[in-house]
Amino acid sequence: MKNHQLFIKCLNIGPFEVNTYIAACPQTLEGIIIDPGGEDERIIHIINKNNIHPKYIINTHGHRDHVHSNVSLSDIYNIPVCMHVDDKDFFLKKTEHQDIKIKKNYAIDIDLHHCDELQLGNFKIKIIHTPGHTPGSICLYISNCLFSGDTLFVGGAGRTDLPGGDLDGLIQSIKNQIIPLPPDTIVYPGHDYGDTPVSTIGREIKKNIYITDFISP
Predict the structure, then answer these.
(1) Measured distance CA(33)–CA(59) in Å, rounded
(2) φ/ψ of residue 10, rounded to 5
(3) C-alpha–C-alpha distance, residues 66 and 75, integer Å
(4) Is 17 left (phi over 0), alpha (psi -120 to 50) or beta?
(5) What's the predicted TM-score (pTM) here?
(6) Nearest CA to 193 among 16, 10, 8, 2?
(7) Of 83, 91, 109, 173, which residue is the least packed, with the fewest Cβ within 10 Å?
(8) How far apart are CA 43 and CA 207, in angstroms?
(9) Is 61 exposed, middle or buried (0-12, 13-18, 19+ CB in 10 A)?
(10) In the chain, what's the furthest Cα-to-Cα distance?
């Protein structure tokens, strides 16, 4: 499934197989790094190969597997790290008595809020707050693409049995924030757990058990 407007490259990274995305405006080559899970050299290779100029690092949520390379890549490209304020506060509080190296991974430069917009070349990045997997989980809506993090997977959704998780909140986020999007919106999840790497909102409405079992009549 291809999006002929936004440049998108997915790298499956680390022991938790996080989908790290590099997305860019093909006209200006301004780019973002979504959920840098490690293996910096692979991320840097894609950026250099395609002459992309990174502008932001954006975390869909604060779990360690999604923020692993925040500090290193922010230093390399001199760009800010962005996270929803609820996850920044939640995970900084949880790590305040832990190793300083862990805390450093949560050094967030830009606090994000629901409906914030960031400019990416000729595109706008809309921030959609989707709490449930974590208090500050977000999805990024760019053109006809939804980078859904661990809120929505192909055929499933993120865990809610970890600290900060809330199943009812997750269901409400999917119902109120994701289902209303156009059915041809392409879904790029935070992990490749489904029968296909990407999907669409329309397909998920018909097949995703978190929608068919918990939301649809």
Answers:
(1) 8
(2) -110, 130
(3) 17
(4) left
(5) 0.95
(6) 16
(7) 109
(8) 32
(9) buried
(10) 50
pLDDT in tens, 24-49: 999 999 999 999 999 999 999 999 99
Structure tokens at 85: 């304020």
Instruction: Specify the length of the chain in residues.
Output: 217
pLDDT at 107 over 90: no
Tokens of 212: 């068919």
Evaluate whether 126 touches 146 at the Cβ level (below 8 Å).
Answer: no
The superfamily CATH assigns to domain 7-212 is Ribonuclease Z/Hydroxyacylglutathione hydrolase-like (3.60.15.10)
Question: Are residues 104 and 71 in contact, defined by beta-carbon separation less than 8 angstroms?
Answer: yes
- Nearest 5°: CA angle at 142, between 170 and 185? 65
Check residue 145 and give its pLDDT: 98
Instruction: Assess contact for 27 and 44: CB atoms under 8 A.
Output: no
Q: Answer for the pair 73, 45: CB distance below 8 angstroms, yes or no.
A: no
Burial of residue 140, with CB atoms counted within 10 A of its CB: 0-12 exposed, 13-18 middle, 19 or more buried: buried
Question: What amino acid occupies position 170?
Answer: L
Pull the structure tokens for residue 192: 């490749």
| Cα gap 64→133, rounded to integer Å | 14
Residue 188 Cα distances to 21, 41, 102, 111, 114, angstroms: 9, 22, 27, 23, 19
Which residue(s) pair with 185 in the sheet? Answer: none
Domain extents for the chain?
A: 7-212
* Measured distance CA(76)–CA(176) in Å, rounded: 38
